[in-house]
Write a structure and sequence with these properties.
289 residues; alpha/beta; Spore Coat Polysaccharide Biosynthesis Protein SpsA, Chain A; 6-stranded mixed sheet; 5-stranded mixed sheet; 7 helices; globular
Length: 289
């Protein structure tokens, strides 16, 4: 299994705490899936002291094979849409999309993969302690299909990842309201309440700007407000029991350590026949010692 940890964005704010969370999550994930994996980091333009510390902390972890860092001025979606390393997403079987202030508490990735595959789930999240909306932590167990799943931790495959990017908008760069439209887009999303993550830090979004951008985003799809979306599609729509016994479906892979240089401007991407986009930018990797 080729696995990718995709860090949505990280910057100077609460940096020490977020580095602590990141290190915890990476170690937890390795202990859980018992194989090496790669990481993509979206990095806000920050002081070199913070940037170097981020790289140093990740480099300490021998189970991280490849480190891809995209550094750019912007906010969330603005970073994602300019990230040249999206041209390697198709190399991965599964991607963990996660925010920088989300700490893994109790999750079995292999079991979630099995549930995801058996139920054809596209956007899959565990229970979230500290979520904005109560339905994300309403229950202690069970698989619940929902037209709305807050975006903190999504277990995705490559097709799901591309779909997630496609439904976002550069104008709605804080991505408020995107999670309300999963029913509208006919996306099969679910929450597995047996596993839990923790939203550690309060949101630092400019609320007024985020709401304004969200309304414009929802308007594009014929909705005047988030209340109108919820009224039509609601949240929890189906509950399914799950057999908790499970076997690992992970395979180990050869360990190759390469580090990509930081770039600030995305290259032009060319589509090649196998569906993986190749960059026309020459990059030099080196083995971590």
């Amino acid at each position: 299994m080729n696995f990718l940890y995709y860090l949505a964005a990280i910057g100077e704010s609460n940096f020490d705490k977020k580095i602590e969370i990141l290190t915890h999550n990476l170690k937890y994930l390795y202990d859980n899936i018992k194989q090496n994996f790669d990481i993509i980091v979206n990095l806000y333009e920050i002081n070199n002291i913070y940037e170097n510390r981020l790289k140093d902390e990740i480099n300490k972890l021998e189970f991280i094979d490849n480190i891809f860092i995209h550094k750019k001025k912007g906010i969330l979606v603005q970073l994602w849409f300019s990230n040249p390393y999206h041209n390697i997403i198709d190399n991965y079987d599964y991607i963990l999309f996660i925010l920088d202030d989300v700490k893994i508490d109790r999750v079995d990735i292999n079991h979630m993969i099995r549930i995801k595959e058996e139920n054809s789930i596209e956007f899959f999240s565990p229970r979230v302690t500290g979520s904005t909306h109560s339905f994300m932590n309403k229950y202690n167990n069970g698989l619940y299909f929902s037209n709305s799943v807050e975006i903190y931790f999504f277990l995705l495959n490559k097709n799901d990842f591309h779909k997630f990017m496609q439904i976002n908008s550069i104008d709605n760069y804080q991505f408020w309201g995107v999670d309300l439209l999963f029913g509208y887009f006919n996306i099969k999303s679910a929450i597995y309440y047996d596993y839990n993550i923790i939203h550690v830090l309060p949101s630092q979004n400019n609320r007024n700007t985020a709401i304004k951008n969200m309304i414009k985003y929802l308007n594009k799809f014929g909705f005047k407000s988030h209340e109108e979306v919820i009224k039509k599609y609601g949240n929890i729509k189906e509950v399914k029991s799950i057999n908790k016994s499970h076997n690992s479906i992970c395979n180990t892979k050869k360990r190759i350590i390469v580090k990509q240089p930081i770039i600030s401007k995305p290259p032009v991407l060319n589509v090649i026949p196998n569906g993986i986009r190749k960059s026309n930018t020459n990059s030099i990797g080196h083995k971590r010692r």
